[in-house]
Amino acid sequence: MTQGEIEALSREIERNARNLEIDIMLDIVRRIKSNLDIEQSMTSSADYQIQLLRKMGYSDEFLKNEIKSYLKFSDEEIDRIYNQTSENLYKEYEDAFDAIGKKQTPFGKHPEIQPVVKSAIEQSKNTFQNITGSMGFTKNVNGKRQFMDTAKFYQRSLDEAVLGVATGAFSYDTILKRIIKDMTRSGLRTVEYASGRTYRVDSACRTALMTGFRQIVGRMNEQVAAELDTDTYEVTYHIGARPEHQAWQGKVYSYKDLESVCGLGTVTGLCGANCYHWYDVFIQGVSVRNYTDEELQEMIDEENEKTSYDGKEYTTYEALQRQRKLELTMRVYRQDIKLMKEGGVSELEIMGAKARYKKTMDEYVKFSKVMKLPEQRDRIYMDGLGRISTKVGKKILSSMKISIPKEVVEKAGLDKSVEKKINQAIKKLDKEYTIYLDSIEGGKLGRGDLFVSGAYLDKDGMLKHGLVFNYNIDYNKFESRIKMLYSTGYMAGKSYEDYIAHEMAHIIPFQNCVTKKDYDKLTDEIYKSFVKGISKYADKEHDGRESLAEAFVRYRNGEKIPDESRKLIEKYILPWRRK
Hints:
GO terms for molecular function: structural molecule activity. This is Minor capsid protein. This protein is of the alpha+beta class. The protein folds into four domains: 1-212, no CATH class; 230-304, no CATH class; 306-398, no CATH class; 401-576, no CATH class. It has helices at residues 3-9, 11-40, 46-56, 60-91, 94-99, 114-132, 150-166, 172-186, 201-227, 243-246, 255-260, 293-304, 316-343, 347-371, 378-381, 394-398, 406-412, 416-432, 479-487, 496-504, 516-527, 536-541, 544-556, 563-572, and strands spanning 135-141, 144-149, 189-192, 197-200, 232-235, 252-254, 279-281, 307-309, 312-314, 439-443, 451-457, 463-470. It has a four-stranded antiparallel beta sheet with strand order 2-1-3-4. The protein has a three-stranded antiparallel beta sheet with strand order 6-5-7. The two termini are 46 Å apart.
C-alpha cells in the first residue's frame, strides 16, 4: 500500500471524529451563551445565579446521541475496512499463487485469517466505545493542564463565566473567547485512565483503526508467505520518511530482519505510530523490486538536500512536518471563527481570528511553493466547516481606527498639535501595515522613554499588544530632543511618526503568536538577530528587537541599511504590509 492509500483508510473516521468534536464544542458555546443571556436578566447574587444555572446542568442526552451516531458510523467503517480492504489486498497475491501453481484459499473462508479479522473487529469496536466513553477537554488549572470530562468542563466554564460577567470582572467577549480557546487548543480528548495520558479523539480513533487493520494484514502476510514458501518481504518507500526510517525503506528483508532492522512490532518502527510504510510478500525469482538500491539512495539524497526559507533550511521531512503544523494551526483558527460566530462574539474579535487564519494560509501557500510540496488542503477542510470567509466589512474596518484615548491625552498633557501629529502617525502606519493594537494606555515610565510597546497577557491569559505613553515626560517639548538624538546618531527616528514606527516594529512581527510560548520563542529568535551599526541606541542595547525596529525606521525613510537588516524586515514586518 502507498502512503496515500494508508492515509485514506482512516480519513472518514477522522473526518467524522472532527465533526463530533465541533458539534460538542458548538453545543457548549450555545449552552453558555444561553445561560449568560438568562444571567443578564437576573438581579440576584452571582452565587445564587450559579446554583440556579447549575440545576439546568449539562444534559448528556445530546452527547449520548452524538456518540451513538459516531459509533454507528465507525462500526460500519471498521467492518468495511477490515473485511473489504483486507480482502482486496489478499487478492493481489492471486498472480503469485498462479506463478507457483498453487490455489489461493478464498479470503472469506480462510481458516487462519478469518479468526484474526473477527477478533480485530471486536477489539477495535470496544476500543472506540472506550474512546467515546471517556471524552473531555484539558483546561489550565493553577498553571497545570487538567483533564475534565465534557460535563465537568462545561460546568467549570459556566461557573467562571457567570462569576466573571455577574461581578463585572470580565466582558462577555472575554469570557467566551477564553472558553473557546480552552476547547480549540485542547481539542476533544480521550483519557487513558491507567496512565493518565490524554489523546485527541481524532488521533486516538485513527490509531485504533490502523492498529486493528495492521494486525489483520500482518497476520495475512505471514500466512500468505508460508503458503508461497517464502520468508522475504519488500518494504515500501515514500517521500518524506522520518530520518530513522530512511535507511531501511524500499528494501527486501526476511521476517526476522523486519523485526531486528526495521523495528516491526515496536512503536517507533515499521508500521508503528504514524508510520506510513508497509510490507508485502516478496517471492525471489518471481517478484520484482519497485526500486533498486541505487535508485533509493538517489531519492533519499535528493530529499535530504536542504532548501532555504526565511533564514532556515529544511529537508523534505522537516518541510512536511512544518506543513502539517500549519494545517493544524489553520484547523484551530477555523474552529475559533465558527465558535465565536455561534457565541455572538463581536465582529472586531472575529476579524482578528480571520486575520490570523488568512495570514497562516498565506504562509502555507508560500512555504509549500518554495519547498515544492503539493498543498494538501483536504487536511485543513476535513473539519466539515466548509468555506470560511476572511473578508471583513468596511463598516467593521472603519470602527477599528486606532487613536489615543481621551484619558491618555489628558494625563500625558498633550496639546492639540502633538495629539494630532501622533494620531496621524498611528493612522499612517495602520494604513501601511495591518496592525492589531489592542490598547493605548499611559503610565509612569523611565524619563528616557517616549513610548513603550509590546505583548502582554490580559486577565484571562489572552495575548494582547499595547502601546504605552510615558506620563513622566513633556511631549510638547520633546520634538527638539528627538531631532538632537537623530543628529548625533543615537536614534534612527527624527519625528513622532518615526518613533511610532519604531514601536509598531515591536508589535508587527508577533501578531501571529497565539500563546506566551509562541511569543517567547519568537522574541528569543529576533533578540539573537542583532545587527550592529543601525543606531547608537540599538548598539548599546545589543538586542535584535531594537536593531530591527531602528532599521525599520530608516527603511521607511529611504535611508541605507545593511542587507542583513533588510532581510530581517522582509521576514518579520513586510508580510504584514497592506497591498
